[in-house]
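Morning F.,

Quick status update on the modeling queue. The single chain you submitted on Monday has been processed. Sequence for confirmation:
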Amino acid sequence: MKTSLFALAAALFLFGPAQAQHTDQERQEDIARHRAMAAAHEGMAKCLASGKKEDICAAELQAACKGLALGKSCGMRHAH
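Structure tokens below.
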């Protein structure tokens, strides 16, 4: 039992989990979602650069990213 668990863990480490292939439509939707997230983050950068308070810009980012990504930071977490 230990050997088979070790072999499975080693295989996952070396080869990673199996990933499902996406259809062309799913791939295009993913590309569009990434572009929309990038635009939302660019909007956040412009908002901050304009001198607005961070909480106002964060609220705008959350609104722009609704349904696009997980979390309050639109799929991007910062170190601070």
